[in-house]
Queue: 3 jobs
Job 1
Amino acid sequence: MSETTLISFEGLQAQTERIVDNVIKKVAVNISAAANNAITKKNDGLHVDISGKVDKVKNATAGNIPVFDSDGKIADSAVAVDGVIKKVAGAKVGNIPTFDSDGGLIDSGINFEKLDHLVRHLVRYGYRIKKTEPDPYARVEYIYDAVGFTPAKMDFENDTFNFGSWSDVWFVKDIKPLMLKNDGTVDYYLYENDYSIKANGDDVTTPSTAADSDSDVANTEYEGNAMVQIPLIWVKRYEDDDYIYEIVSNVKWDKNYKAYAHTNASGQVKQYFYYSMFDGSGSSSSIRSLSSKTVSKSLTASQQIQGATANGTGWYIHTWSQRELIRTLCILLGKSTDT
C-alpha cells in the first residue's frame, strides 16, 4: 500500500489529500482564526510565523543574566548572576530579602506569609458624631470598615450581651480577664462567665477542669490583682464644623494614629495594657483590684497613686488616655453616645 499526503487551501480551511493505492481521500482541517496563531495561509501553502521566536544567543556564557539589545533581541549581559545575587548566610525560607546600608542583600526577618496575612487584615473602624443631632443613637454614623456593622447591645430579655457584628474583631476577642502578678506577668486567665474559676488556658470562654481550678479573684493573700487585658489599639481623633471623628485601627495607619493608652512611662508602645477589673479596695499603703471588697472612696488622688504604685514597678492608677480609649470603644460598639 502506498500513501501520499497533499495539502491545499480554501479560505481558512486546509484540505489534506491522501492518495492511498491510487485512491484520493480528502480530509478537511480547520485553521484557527484566533489572534497570534503562528500557522497562516500563504499562496504557495502552509506557513508558520517564527518572527516572535526567541533565538539562541551565540557565544552566551552559562550563568550570565540575559538582557535586550537595541533591536529588542535577547543578548548576553556579561554579568553573572552570582556576581549580583549571592546566597545570604542564615536566611530563613519564606522571609523577605532586603538591603543593608552597603547595598548588600540580607534577610529582613519578616516572613512573607505573616506580612501578607497582616496586610490583608489591616482595618479601620470608625464613627462620626453629628454635633447638631441631640438623639444619642441618631447622631452616631459608622465610617470606614465599620459601615454595615450591627451595633452591640444588652439583651435584657435573655440576660446576655449581644456583640452584633463585633464578636470577631481583635479588640473584642483579645480583651480577657486575668490574674496579673505584682511583677507584671500574667499568672492565668479567668473564665469569663465566672471569675471565681480559672479559664481553660487562654480560652476564657471555657472553664478549667483541673483540680486547682479555683481562682484568686477575691484572695487578699494573692500577690497580684484581677485585671483586664486590653490589646494594642491605634486611635485617630479629629473634628470639623459639623462632626467629631474617632477611628481605631490594628496598625499605625498614618502619623496621626496614636497609642497613648498603650504607651508606658518610658515611651514604649506595648502590646497590652492591664486595667483593673474592680474599683480599688484597701488603703494608701496598698490598693487592690479584687472581687467583693469594700471600695476605698475617701482617698485623695495622691493617696490613690501611692496605694497603686505600692503593688510594684509599672503599677499606677487609671490614666486619662486609658479612660478615653474605653469611652471610644463603647461608642463604637454601641453606635451611640449613650453607652
Job 2
Amino acid sequence: MLKVKICGIKTVDAAIEADQNGADYIGFIFYRKSSRFVTPFKAAEIAKSIKCKKVGVFVDESAGVINGIINLVGLDYVQLHGNEDAKFASKIRRVPIIKAWRFNDDLDMRMVNNYPCDMILLDSFVKGRVGGTGKTFDWHKASLETRKLTKPFFIAGGISKQNVQEVVKIFRPYGVDVSGSLEFKGAKSTNKIREFMDWTNNLRGYVPEPAISDEIVLSQ
C-alpha cells in the first residue's frame, strides 16, 4: 500500500491531523536555513502526540548532532538530504536511513543503489537548492531510471492532491513525500492535510481508525 510522508511539520496540531488521518511518516526539518526548520526540543514535544513514524531531515550535519537528536526526539528514521557520503552514513546509529537524491541527467542509479541506506527519496533538482522547492521534475524520464532501483523509494517535489494519482500511476513508488502544497501562508494547514489525506486514502483504499476522544480516555 502506498505510504505517505508529510514533511516540514512544525506544530502539534499539524502532526496530530496528519497522524489521525493516516499519514505513515512525518518529517521534522533540522536544517536551519529552511523556512520549515524546527528545533529539536519542539520536535520532541510534537513527537509525544503522535504514533506514526518520525523522520529527522538533515543537510550536511555532523554525525554527533544527528545521533543526539535521534535520542532527544525519538526519531524512527534519519533522512540525509545533503552531500553525505557512504562513510558518513555508517556513523548514524540505531535507526534506518533514507537518502535523498535530486534527480537530473547526471544521477547514476548504480551509485544510488550502492549507497548504504534503507530507502531512497527522489526530489527535484534546482541549482543552489537542497530541496523543499515545490517543483516537480520530468517524471516520465525519471520513471525509466527508477526501474533500476533495488530499494523502496519515495517521490518528492511538488506533490499535491491534484497530481498524486499521476505520480502513483507513473512510478508505482513505495511512497510520496508532500509538504508545500499543504501550506497556507507558509504554515501547514490542517484543512489541507485532511483534504490531501482523504484523497490519497481513497487511492490506496485506506480507512483511518476513529480517533479516541479525551472524554472516553478519561472515563476509563
Job 3
Amino acid sequence: MQVSHKDQNTNILVSSLLDVINKSLTPKLSDWWVKVILIAALLSLIEIRSDGWKLAFSVTTLILLSLIWLPFLLKILSLVGGGIKTEVGEVNTPGLIDLVARLLGVINDIGDQVDDKNINKAREIINEARREAEREIAAQIPDKAAARKRCEELAKRYQEIRKEPPGQQRTYKMSQTIAEIRALASVADYSSQELDRLFKSNSTGNRILVLAILQACPDIALFDSITASIQDSRSAFEQSMALRISENLVEKLNDEQKKRLREVIENEEVKKHIGSDDSRKIPAERILKSLIAG
C-alpha cells in the first residue's frame, strides 16, 4: 500500500513527539512527580462532612491527574517552540502553551499547600516543575514589549474572571492567570517605579499583576504596596498572595519594616478577614513566628 506524502509527514511528527515523551521519563522528575500528584489526587477524593467522610471524584481530581503529563508537555513544547513547518502546513502550539499555563496554575496552588504542610521532598519536585514550566512559557515570548502586552491582557482577564460566581473553577482560572504573569516576570522586566505606578492605578487587575511579578521577583522597594494588599486587600486571593510574598521578604526587612508588618498582620480587622482560611492563616502565623524570633 502506498503511503501519501501527508501521512509520511504526520508519522514523522508523531514519531518525534513519542521520542520526546520516552526521553522525558527520567527518574529524577517523573517518578517523584507522579507520586506527589497521585497522593494529591487521592487526597482530593476525600470529602469531609459533619457526619464523617466519603470518597467523591471531583474536577480537582481530574485536573491533578492531568498534571502527571506536565513533564511530557514541557518537552514537547520545547521541541516544537512556536510551531513546526512541514510541506502540508504548520503545526503550531497555542493550545499546548495554554494548557501548560493552566497546569502551572494548579502547580502553584499545590505548591502553596505543600509549603503549608512543610513537605520538603514534594516541595523540591514541585518547584522544579514550576521553574521548567515558567521557562518554557517565557521562551515563547519574543521580547519585553510582547511580555508586557501579554501581562496587561492577563490583568484584564483577571478582572473579568473576578465577575464570575465564586467557586473552585474561578479560583483555578485566577491561579492560571497569575501563573502566566509570574512566568513572564523576568522578560517583562518592570522597574520598581513602574510597578508602584501600576499598583496605585486603582485597577484590581493591575494590583494582581504587581503581586504576581513580586512573587517571581521579590522587591523590597514595593513593601508599602505589599502591606497594603494585606491590610486593605480587595479579595482573599490578593491577601493570600501578599502574605506569601511578605514571608519571602522577612529576612530582608529592616527593623522599622518588620515592626510595620507585624502591626499589619496583628491588626484585628486583618485577623478577622483571614479567619480560619489556612491559605492565609498558615503563612501569617509563619511570618509572625519569624518576626518574633528575629
